[in-house]
Amino acid sequence: MENSEGVKIESTVVTEEPLISALDIALFVVIITVAYFWYFKRDKQSSSSEKKPYTIQPSSLSSIEQTSNSSFIKKLKSTGRSLVVSYGSQTGTAEEFAGRVAKEGARYKMKGMVADPEECDMADLVEMKEIQKSLAIFCIATYGEGDPTDNAMDFYEWLQNGDADLEGLNYAVFGLGNKTYEHYNEIAIYIDQRLEELGATRVHEIGLGDDDANIEDDFVSWKEKLWESVCSHYGIEETGEESNIRQYKLVDCSEVLPERIFSGEISRLKSYENQRFPFDVKNPYLSKIAVNRELHKSGDRSCMHIEFDIDGSKMRYDTGDHVAVYPKNSSELVDKIGELLNADLDAVFSLLNTDEESSKKHPFPCPCTYRTALTYYLDITSNPRTHIMKELIEYASDPKDQEKLKLMASSTPEGKKEFHEWILRDNRNIVHILEDLPSVKPDLDHLCELLPRLQCRYYSISSSPKVYPKSIHITAVLVNYTTSTNRVNKGVATNLLAQLIPTNDELPQPTIPIYIRRSQFRLPPKSQTPIIMIGPGTGLAPFRGFIQERDYARKEGREIGEMVLYFGCRKKDEDFIYESELQEYVANGTLTKLHLAFSRDQPEKKYVTHLLEQNADELWNIIGEKSGHLYVCGDARSMAKDVHSIIVKVVMEKGQTTNSQALNYVKKMEQQKRYSADVWS
Asked: Which residues cross the membrane (predicted)?
């Protein structure tokens, strides 16, 4: 019917006026022109989108940069380079080591570049053989329970699951680990072996750095021998050229508009003013401090119970997870650097990478003021490494200061001894060095380039989301200690947290950036499974969340298994944290047994390990006869190792096994997630 009406109208028009008027023609031309441009523009964008590979890049890079940055082999070829140094880094140390190795390549006529595996197509390694005298070096950290770092995860999985032909690839590996942990340098060792399995040639033996001892020493020693092997393998010699070349150039940003200047954001400009979910390492949530109270009853030490408000953030956590806290340096130390170097800390600047092919354009968010950089982005409280000593030499006007820096920067036995005693033993940071070597006056922009990034601090979450879905609790000891030079060193994060006290009035509440890091430290899936928890001091933190969760299940009417807690501290009347809570859980039946060790309440010191040895029958009953779970949280260096030895001994004696069988039994417990540790050194 509609069609017949249309025909009638058209018929009428035909009889009364021309079929197409001048206006009709003009409109038709406009429509065709718009359609033409729309179609071909869309087609071009679509084609571009299809061709662009998916890469994970820093938020500051443009889409054009992202496309080119994914292929490191193209950069090597186009810039005449033959050395690529990749890193797997969680705290920045492996990245720093990678940069130092790449920089030194110039001394051996091997122009190098640093590659982040997360931002590069590591399948390019197959093509490295096309570059004459090429070399791939990997600085790889092992993280958590023998896991790859976040940025090396895809590369690790590519090696695991792929079967690329890497014949013709020359490589070397340096691992960063900690001997107090069970999975010491596991990822680096795997990558070293896997590359060889895939046909690559190992130019130099793997180096294993131990952060529990002196990882800087380990790295320098390995690096020296690495270049000897490189020279032998390629038949080249050291040029003798110094590698103290600036990686970044200073850019004056005094004319930049205030709204384009970073003021402490981790990645995205104005991210704290305009918060966007999801929140992660590059996009933390600015949380209000809801509670900050003292847990110690007396004494000169402090332990804080802090609650972060996450209401409305959409953040979710599980019992046993960690929360990362982004600290800032004290204004006192920052001002001291400005004073020592006679610098204007409020000047706005940027550091721009001199390597135009690098995906890392800036060492930290730029532009910003020097005050912002020193407060939020740079680590000014840790012990500087030897390469910083080397870079400071040129700024010393006093020959004595020059000689001291040269000695500490050297790899001679005398130099290593001096560095160990003057920097490590005396616990000097960059502020102390500038104070004690008064003629050393580095350019502040160069110092900002040299100093490592300030890292977030991780804390075990001491609450359960079942009970506290809108807040995250942590338990933190205030870190303050006097060094051998009579200086008081203060923990960056805990001293900041100690100042963030919420108020009861209408004033804005204190805030701090945080994000949640997932953990494998988990309660058994079944609430009936019995568990043993061993957590002296702040090692109690995750178990507070465990107990809350089981208590919640009990109140819901579900059956819960035995919960046995071993807790220890110095004195019952001084640092027995959460005492009333724990006693209440014992009274209502959630906590089956509470074993307490107060090390200084009697002449002979008493620790949780002593109680474990005394309760061998109870231990075996739960982990052996009832297939329960065992958890350890706290000091990795001694306590966790002692607990492990005791468990092996209990399995031997009560399970009537040999030492080898007991070790295998405990190993199987770990593999089945029945023996879990959340420890630190």
From this structure: 20-39
